[in-house]
């Protein structure tokens, strides 16, 4: 596994199996004539220890169709909203969309499913999926399509077999461009706590899940499965990552989510609407600062505005930016964005650190898909977190691990990486990447940690 964004040191570059999107410039490596004992330490190993991440997901298929207002009304759907519908209603809706040839795309979906797939595509590393799957899978079925569009690097061996269909999410786009969602849960929330494998979580780079899991209906135990997994992760000091999913869920009971995040979550991912629902603050930067009351690191995507990161770093480990200083609701907020994120509890003197980046190339000329852009950004962050664990396990004597950091790279570099991945998702129809990223852009910060 390669570092998610920052320059690799000589020990990392000695491993031919490590992968990073794009090709490195030779000047970014250590000089070839510089002997580094850490490189010898790694090359002397018969086989470097690999790493992985774990995710708890609702297995569902995304179905995108272009419809008119009359169809929405006839199927009792609310324009611009997200509604749960029964399996029977989903069957009737799907049959009409098929008959009228209104379906434009069908893809494997789900927030965590997308994130794990994109992580695996970017890193070429294992992503363990804890979820359910139909016991009997027919060719052409929803379940068949889900597995067909999932990276082979996603470990589906832990899937729990269930009777009944997996979930379906209909994205219905009206001529005005408004998106309405109809979700049929099927059996996607029937994951049992016994299906969680503690040994896999204890050795993971991160455990990731979405807010939807904690609002399962009576009789469905996916929330209990998630709580069991979180307890194992905390015991093993594995970062717990939560993505908020939708503002409609958060605004129903924001205090519940504040308390939940404070008790269970290390890293929080959200968009600007979810951030406002959680904190009551419409400014993404200020909302990110408020969220640091409850967690250690925040990723906040803000659509055409770009994305923000916020977190902590010990005062002794702060690194000043070489970029232009920015001010907003917080003055010169990016001053220390070349620092690496740390848990607040691991800091002797914790300082809040922020970073921001505008959309890559000003954003796509044409946006083909907005579903999954945030999931792509989160996959980049997870790649960097997993790379940190990989490097720490294989090169424990590296100076990078003299302090306990959450990531391999700095706030600034992770922002660039997440931003680039989001762009790639926006310019394709599927929320899941089909390939790695092209040549990466050069940075002022290349080799910063090797000086």
**What is the H/E string?**
HHEEHEHEHEEHEEEEHEHEHHEHHEEEHH
Spatial extent as radius of gyration: 22 Å
Indicate the overall shape: globular
Portion in strands:
15-25%
Number of strands: 16
Report the oligomer: single chain
CATH architecture: 3-Layer(aba) Sandwich
Pathway: Purine metabolism; IMP biosynthesis via salvage pathway; IMP from inosine: step 1/1; Purine metabolism; GMP biosynthesis via salvage pathway
Binding site for ATP: 301-306, 374, 419
Cofactor: Mg(2+)
Domain Carbohydrate kinase PfkB: 104-310
Report on this structure.
With 451 residues, the protein is an alpha/beta fold. The chain has helices at residues 10-13, 37-43, 69-74, 87-99, 111-123, 142-148, 198-202, 222-235, 247-250, 254-264, 272-279, 284-291, 373-394, 411-426; strands at residues 52-56, 60-66, 82-85, 103-109, 126-130, 132-134, 154-155, 160-162, 167-173, 179-184, 207-210, 240-243, 267-271, 297-301, 307-314, 350-357. It has a nine-stranded mixed beta sheet with strand order 7-5-1-11-12-13-14-15-16, with helices on both faces. Strand 9 and strand 10 form a beta hairpin.
């Amino acid at each position: 596994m390669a570092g998610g964004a920052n320059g690799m040191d000589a020990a990392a570059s000695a491993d031919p199996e490590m992968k990073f999107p794009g090709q490195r410039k030779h000047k970014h490596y250590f000089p070839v004539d510089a002997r580094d004992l850490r490189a010898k330490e790694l090359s002397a190993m018969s086989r470097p220890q690999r790493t992985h991440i774990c995710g708890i997901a609702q297995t569902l298929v995304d179905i995108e169709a272009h419809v008119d207002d009359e169809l929405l009304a006839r199927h009792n759907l609310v324009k611009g909203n997200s509604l749960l519908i029964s399996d029977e209603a989903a069957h009737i809706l799907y049959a009409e969309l098929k008959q009228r040839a209104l379906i434009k795309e069908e893809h494997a979906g789900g927030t965590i499913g997308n994130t794990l797939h994109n992580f695996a595509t970017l890193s070429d590393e294992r992503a363990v999926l804890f979820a359910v799957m139909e016991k009997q899978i027919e060719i052409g079925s929803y379940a068949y399509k889900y597995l067909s569009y999932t990276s082979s690097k996603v470990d589906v061996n832990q899937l729990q077999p269930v009777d009944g269909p997996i979930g379906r999410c209909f994205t219905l786009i009206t001529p005005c461009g408004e998106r309405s969602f109809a979700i049929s849960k099927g059996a996607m929330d029937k994951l049992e706590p016994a299906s969680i494998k503690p040994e896999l979580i204890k050795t993971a780079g991160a455990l990731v899940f979405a807010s939807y899991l904690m609002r399962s209906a009576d009789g469905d135990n996916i929330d209990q499965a998630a709580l069991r997994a979180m307890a194992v992760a905390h015991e093993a000091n594995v970062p717990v990552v939560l993505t908020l999913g939708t503002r409609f869920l958060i605004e129903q009971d924001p205090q519940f989510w504040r308390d939940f995040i404070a008790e269970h979550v290390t890293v929080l991912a959200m968009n600007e609407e979810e951030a406002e629902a959680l904190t009551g603050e419409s400014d993404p930067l200020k909302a990110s600062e408020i969220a640091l009351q409850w967690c250690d690191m925040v990723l906040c995507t803000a659509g055409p505005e770009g994305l923000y990161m916020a977190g902590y770093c010990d005062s002794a480990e702060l690194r000043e930016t070489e970029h232009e200083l920015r001010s907003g609701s917080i003055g010169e907020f990016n001053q220390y964005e070349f620092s690496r994120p740390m848990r607040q509890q691991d800091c002797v003197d914790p300082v809040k650190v922020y970073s921001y980046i505008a959309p890559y190339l000003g954003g796509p000329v044409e946006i083909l898909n907005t579903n999954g852009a945030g999931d792509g950004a989160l996959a980049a962050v997870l790649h960097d977190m997993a790379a940190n664990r990989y490097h720490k396990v294989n090169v424990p004597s590296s100076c990078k691990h003299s302090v306990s950091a959450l990531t391999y790279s700095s706030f600034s570099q992770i922002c660039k990486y997440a931003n680039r991945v989001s762009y790639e998702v926006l310019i394709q129809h599927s929320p899941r990447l089909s390939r790695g990223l092209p040549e990466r852009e050069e940075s002022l910060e290349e080799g910063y940690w090797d000086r």
